[in-house]
Amino acid sequence: MADVLEIRPQDSQAEEPQQLTDGFHLVIDALKINDIDTIFGLVGIPITDLARLAQAEGMRFIGFRHEQHAGNAAAIAGYMTKKPGICLTVSAPGFLNGLTALANATTNCFPMILISGSSEREIVDLQQGDYEEMDQLNAAKPYAKAAYRILHAEDIGIGVARAIRAAVSGRPGGVYLDLPAKLLSQTMDALKAQQSLVRVIDAAPAQIPAPDSVKRALDVIKGAKRPLILLGKGAAYAQADADIRALVEKSGIPYLPMSMAKGLLPDTHVQSASAARSFVLAEADVVVLIGARLNWLLSHGKGKTWGGPKQFVQIDISPTEIDSNVAIAAPVIGDIGSCVSALLGGIDASFPKPSAEWINAIAERKNKNLAKMAATLEKNPSPMNFHSALRAIRDVLKTRPDINVVNEGANTLDYARSIIDMYEPRKRFDSGTWGIMGIGMGFAIGAAVTSGTQVVAIEGDSAFGFSGMELETICRYDLPVCTIIFNNNGVYRGTDVNPTGGKDVAPTVFVKGARYDKMIEAFGGIGYNVTTPEELTQALVESIKSGKPSLINAVIDEAAGTESGRLTNLNPQSGATKK
Ligand code: ADP
C-alpha cells in the first residue's frame, strides 16, 4: 500500500489516528496490484501528480511530447506482452490526441488502456464552460472496445479491474478510463481502500473450441488439393509459437505470414510461400486463416487476388468475424493457442500431406521471383534507391535476428516488408490494419522500453514527420533506437512540380536535401548522413554497436517511389490529373 495521510477525526475521541489515502494513490495501487509497471503519457492538469506518484512508487513513467505517440507506445507494449499498455493524458485535447492511438489499438486488436483526467461532471453536463470541458466518455465510446468513468474513490479498484479485463479478454482492444479531477483528490479510509483493490484473476481465459468445429476444420483441410495457411498478427499476439510452428511443419502445408506475423516462423523457412504470394492466394483451394481478418489487406477474400473458388477455415476468438466478407466453410472459435493445439491433435502420420505437384509449383514460382528480386537488389544505382538501401539494411539485420523492426511509409513500407526478413516472433511493428503513417517513434519507444533491446525504425521521410519530435524522448531516456529515414524529398517522391509555376512547391514535395540527422544531434543523439549502401551499412553497424539513440538520413533518389506505394488502386484521381 502506498503512503497514507494520517488524521485524527475531529468528532471522535479515539486514540488511534485514522489513516487516509486518496484517489491518486489508489489508481497507482490498482495498477501495481495487477503487475502493471509502466505508464506512457504526457503530464499536465489534472494528472501531473499521478505521474509523479507513479514514479515515486516504483513504476516507470515514460513522458512523451505528444499523446498520440504515448498511446502508440502503450498499444505496442500491449501487443508484445498481452498485458494492457497504459497511456495517461490530460483532458480534452490531450485526451483527443491519445484517442487516435486508442482507436488504432482497437482496430488492430492491441490491448491498451487510455486513462485521461477530465473536468468536473457537474459543469461538463450543464455545459457551463469548464477548463478543457469535454464529454470525453462519450467521445471515446465509438472508438474503444469499452469505456468507463470512475466517480468514487472506493470504485477505483473495480474500475481498473474492469478496464484490464475488457482490454485483454476475448478480442483484445483499447479501453478508455475517465478519471475526473475531483476523484483523484478524494480521500478514503486506507484500510477500506486497500480492501477495495482487485487483482484480476485469469484476465484472458482460454476459450476452448467446440470439438465438432475442430473436426469440421480437419475434414475441410483433408479434402484440400492445394492448401494454404495464412498467419495474421492475431497468431503472433497469441504467443502460441511452438504449436503454430508444429502445425505448419506436421501438416506440411505452405504458409503466408501477414506483415506483423513475419518471424512467427523464420521468413527463410522452406514452407514460406511469401515469395509466391499472388500465386498461392489465387491458386489455393483451401485457406486456413489463423488470427487474420479478410479485410482490405486481403482483398476481402474475393476478386482477382483470390482466383478460383475456395473454402476457408478460420480460427478466431471473435465469432462475429466469421462470414464478415465471404462465407467461411469451417469456423473454429476460440483462442489461437487452444484451437491450434486441438487441430494438432488431429494431425497424425496418416493425415494427407499436400501433393508434390502443389509444393513444386510453389517452389518454382518462389525461385523465379527470388531470382528476379536478387537481381534487382544487386544493382547499385547512383543515387541510391529503395532497393539498394534495403539490401544494405537486410544484410546487417540478418546478423541480429533479435532486433525489433518498426516500419512505416508508403514505398518504404511496401519494399521493406518484402525485403527485410524476420526471424523471431513479435519483432516487426508496422502500419497495421489501417495502413497508417504516424506510428513510427511511438512504436519504436514502446518496443525499446518493453523489450529493453535494440530497435531499428525504417521510416519514409513523410511518415517520420508525424512523430519526429519524439526523437527528444528517445534521447532523454537514452533508448537503443536507430531511426533510418529514406529521404527522397517528399511524400511518395520529391519530383512533383507546381503546374502553375507559382512559388509554392507541389503538395507532395518537402524541403530538398533536408538533414534529419541534425535533428537528433540537437538532443545529444548520433546523426549520420549517408548516400551509398556502403555508408548505410557502416552507419547501421556502428549505431547498433553503440546501443545509443541515432538517426541515419539515407539520401535516396528523389525520383524513386510510386504514388501511394502499392495502394495506387485506392487513390481516387480527378479526371483532370489522370494520366
Ligand atoms: P492481420 O492484419 O495480420 O491480418 P488482423 O489484425 O486482421 O491480422 O487479425 C487478427 C485477428 O486475430 C482478429 O480477428 C482477432 O480477433 C484475432 N485474435 C487476436 N488475438 C487472438 C487470440 N488470442 N486468439 C484467437 N484470435 C485472436
UniProtKB/TrEMBL annotation:
The protein's required cofactors: thiamine diphosphate
Chain ranges of the Thiamine pyrophosphate enzyme N-terminal TPP-binding domain: 23-137
Gene Ontology MF terms: magnesium ion binding; oxalyl-CoA decarboxylase activity; thiamine pyrophosphate binding
Residue ranges constituting the Thiamine pyrophosphate enzyme central domain according to the UniProt record: 214-343
Keyword set, alphabetical order: Lyase, Magnesium, Metal-binding, Thiamine pyrophosphate
CDD domains: TPP_BZL_OCoD_HPCL, TPP_PYR_POX_like
EC number: 4.1.1.8
Domain Thiamine pyrophosphate enzyme TPP-binding stretches: 415-553
InterPro entries: DHS-like_NAD/FAD-binding_dom, HACL1-like, Oxalyl-CoA_decarboxylase, THDP-binding, Thiamin_PyroP_enz_cen_dom, Thiamin_PyroP_enz_TPP-bd_dom, TPP_enzyme_TPP-bd
UniProt-listed GO biological process terms: fatty acid alpha-oxidation; oxalate catabolic process
Pfam families documented for this protein: TPP_enzyme_C (PF02775), TPP_enzyme_M (PF00205), TPP_enzyme_N (PF02776)
Cross-referenced SUPFAM superfamilies: DHS-like NAD/FAD-binding domain (SSF52467), Thiamin diphosphate-binding fold (THDP-binding) (SSF52518)
The protein's name in its UniProt record: Oxalyl-CoA decarboxylase
Organism: Caballeronia glathei
Lineage of the species this protein comes from: Bacteria, Pseudomonadati, Pseudomonadota, Betaproteobacteria, Burkholderiales
